[in-house]
Amino acid sequence: MRIGNTEIRPAGGGLGCLLMILFSIVASVVLTVLLNLLL
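RESULT FIELD:
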């Protein structure tokens, strides 16, 4: 993935990229649930 003239390579190639996407989805869901429990 390129942003301007800087190329960003996900750690671990395609698998690492998928893991990062999955982790971000899970983290956002967990944060949402925690916020709902606290408020």
